[in-house]
Amino acid sequence: MASVHLTGPRVAVAAKPVGGLRLPTPSIAVPTGRRRARGLVVRAATVVSPKYTSIKPLGDRVLVKVKTSEAKTDGGILLPVSVQTRPQGGEVVAVGEGRSFGINSIEISVPVGAQVVYSKYAGTELEFNDADHLILKEDDIIGILDSDDVKDLKPLNDRIVIKVAEAEQQTAGGLLLTQANKEKPSVGTVIAVGPGPLGEDGSRKPLSITPGSNVMYTKYAGSEFKGAEGDYIVLRASDVMALLS
């Protein structure tokens, strides 16, 4: 049975003797980059050559300069790269010409300079002008956030922002629950809604869900955030299963 040892840019495979013979030790080259691997998964950004001075997205794509990862905890503890939270926000630095619906054209609704939040695994990573960028579709942008608190997020398209209800502290029989045993809630209160999705004619269809509504949503949908006043989730209106009253 061979064993695998990670030794930097190469993976050495150590083979045990077979029938008294020791096999030569092969090695497998693993590409390296600025981003470290988690396990054997390597996320490498596409490096844009310095000879190119600008990037112009096409269609409904947007170029975002990614916010820098937090290198320390709130208490000042330095975090290794492997556990730093991957940013989900940044500044829009360029936009495409928009989308076409027959003879109608709809421009990108997100302006250059806007601070945006996007879906966690969306887009293509780029390294441009010594900074991390992401090129993604407009629909992958969750919303515009001009402050540091997610409760101020302005959702785009068919997305809604929900303040998650607090988990139950005890069972129906009065038994106190530990943090590990608390059921993750899938209900909350809508605090903001987007303008609605684009129809086939390019017009917006307003959402039927309104701020202030108490809703039940699909358990593993959306993107979760922690705010100053609690937990929030941003998801598509189609992920809401029911209204509660």
Automatic annotation (TrEMBL):
Looking at the keywords, is Protease present? Answer: no
Q: Name one Pfam family in it.
A: Cpn10
InterPro entries recorded: Chaperonin_GroES, Chaperonin_GroES_sf, Chaprnonin_Cpn10_CS, Cpn20, GroES-like_sf
Q: Which UniProt keywords apply?
A: Chaperone
- Which SMART domains did the record assign? Cpn10
* Keyword Lipoprotein carried by entry: no
Q: Which GO terms describe its molecular function?
A: ATP binding; protein folding chaperone; protein-folding chaperone binding; transition metal ion binding; unfolded protein binding
Annotated Gene Ontology cellular components are:
chloroplast; mitochondrion
What the record says about family reads: Belongs to the GroES chaperonin family.
> What protein is this chain from?
20 kDa chaperonin, chloroplastic
Lineage of the species this protein comes from: Eukaryota, Viridiplantae, Streptophyta, Embryophyta, Tracheophyta
